[in-house]
Amino acid sequence: MADMQGIDDPAMGKLRYLRPFIVLLPAFIVCVFNIYAGISFNASMVRLLVTVLFFYIVGTIAQSIVRKMMIDASIELAEKEERERKERMIAEEDEDEDEGEDAEETEGEA
Length: 110
Prior knowledge:
- The protein is mainly α.
- It has one domain (18-109).
- Helix content is 81%, strand content 0%.
- The chain is built from two helices and no strands.
- α1 (18-37) runs antiparallel to α2.
- The model has no long low-confidence stretch (mean pLDDT 83).
């Protein structure tokens, strides 16, 4: 998946497990708490369902924010590399012009 600037999505594989982690960790904690507290099965399932839904939404939002930050960082890096490349090209052109002027001066003296 590429964005409009032609930069691949750097978050594609790296964030794959972020949302499941954000959902399953609190769900596990709720399950352990429900067992430890001796809460009935029906009440336990309702709590688990609410926890999973809530943290699924939180995980989706967190994943979107992190993905956007990673894409923005990639764009900034690409722009920085492009500026540096242009600066090197300009510097090389200036050196070529300086060498051409030196050569003309040497020919003029001879």
